[in-house]
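Key result, reporting period 2: structure in, sequence out.
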């Protein structure tokens, strides 16, 4: 006689015959938890209530109302992982084979079924479900690790690039800007009046001045994003009140006549944490400004705060949610890329969210953009309550290849 080990994942059996449900439970509750329902509607309710506990869904084909085939299709729409099996009569085998070939079914069986044979088949199905689930979990974990490595590599490259750009370009650009600003004054002094070509001064001169300021803004954001936390002890504050910072920045950015509703939701008592207060404040400012642009100056912005852990370290999860126009996936995938300019905002430098990315990275955290099922935009940050990374030691900038 074959021995069966009880599986932690259960079996949902749907049949309109009460005796069949009772017999099924008595016959198979020694191999897995059994859930039953006497119609498709009730089966869907049970499935949704125990969605993380069911590995196999078994349904009779002929039932009042929704058929077994339609019921299993709805189960697949909710969650495609559990294996689906259909109980049918010999006369309906063609339909069952078609459903099997279409990928709807893992298997089918005919009535009357042999208890021992079905027990063996259900055991194999549960084993397959568990193996597939563990494999998918492992693949997701590996993908997450790979994405984390890519994110760190990206941040380190930006870090090295930004230090080099600031070292070699910022002083030169500041000198050019100073000289450029002095030109009108010097001309007025030497020529006792401005030249007659006002178009040149109103168009070309002004445009060049704006471009110089634009480049300096990019360098300033990069410099701000790469400084501070990488020198432990110099700029760290040990009693940062994140709630107070968010409330202060929100009042500063959303005050006045701006018709934007702001909501701060604390799921937990966050408490104090350690970090670079100035950089955290600037990061919150950039997040709010980004959301204001998304809602086009009118709408709802919500900050949600949770306590959590990251790699065994206490952390806080910050979610910035807005109800503006949904950001397309192809844009969302590049929001934290260096100098990325959104197609709908060609005049922006694209370094505000890059500043957030670098700040989070230097605190040992994680940042990502996504969308909710109701089409709201989300930028989610996982921030350790104490920085765990020293960027300068990990990625030192070396001049002239030294």
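The corresponding designed sequence is given below.
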């Amino acid at each position: 006689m074959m021995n069966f080990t009880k599986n932690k994942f259960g079996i949902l059996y749907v049949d309109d015959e009460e005796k069949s449900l009772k017999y099924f439970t008595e016959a198979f509750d020694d191999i897995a938890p059994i859930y039953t329902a006497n119609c498709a509607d009730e089966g869907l309710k049970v499935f949704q209530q125990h969605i993380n506990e069911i590995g196999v869904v078994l349904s009779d084909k002929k039932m009042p109302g929704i058929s077994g085939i339609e019921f299993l299709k709805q189960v697949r729409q909710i969650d495609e992982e559990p294996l689906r099996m259909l109980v049918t009569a010999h006369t309906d085998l063609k339909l069952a084979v078609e459903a099997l070939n279409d990928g709807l079914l893992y298997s089918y069986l005919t009535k009357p079924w042999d208890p021992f044979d079905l027990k063996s088949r259900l055991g194999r199905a549960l084993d397959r479900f568990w193996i597939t689930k563990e494999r998918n979990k492992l693949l997701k974990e590996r993908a997450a690790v790979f994405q984390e490595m890519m994110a760190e590599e990206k941040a380190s490259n930006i870090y090295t690039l930004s230090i080099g750009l600031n070292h070699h370009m910022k002083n030169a650009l500041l000198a050019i800007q100073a000289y450029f600003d002095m030109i009108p004054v010097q001309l007025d002094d030497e020529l006792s009046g401005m030249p007659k070509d006002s178009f040149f001064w109103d168009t070309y001169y002004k445009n060049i001045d704006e471009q110089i300021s634009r480049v300096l803004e990019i360098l300033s954001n990069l410099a701000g994003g790469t400084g501070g936390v990488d020198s432990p002890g110099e700029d760290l504050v040990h009693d940062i009140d994140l709630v107070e910072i968010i409330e202060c920045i929100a009042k500063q950015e959303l005050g006045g006549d701006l018709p934007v509703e702001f909501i701060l939701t604390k799921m937990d008592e966050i408490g104090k944490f350690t970090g670079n207060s100035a950089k955290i404040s600037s990061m919150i400012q950039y997040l709010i400004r980004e959301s204001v642009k998304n809602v086009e100056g009118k709408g709802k912005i919500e900050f949600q705060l949770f306590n959590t852990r990251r790699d065994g370290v206490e952390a806080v999860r910050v979610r910035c949610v807005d109800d503006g126009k949904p950001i397309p996936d192809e844009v969302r995938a590049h929001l934290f890329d260096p100098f990325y300019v959104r197609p709908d905002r060609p005049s922006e430098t694209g370094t505000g969210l890059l500043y957030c990315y670098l700040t989070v990275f230097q605190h040992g955290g994680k940042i990502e953009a996504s969308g909710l099922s109701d089409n709201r935009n989300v930028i989610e940050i996982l921030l350790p309550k104490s920085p765990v990374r020293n960027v300068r030691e990990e990625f030192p900038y070396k001049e002239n290849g030294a």
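The domain at 149-401 is CATH 3.30.565.10 (Heat Shock Protein 90). Confidence is low (pLDDT under 50) at residues 228-234, 390-402. This case is discussed further under Risks and Mitigation.
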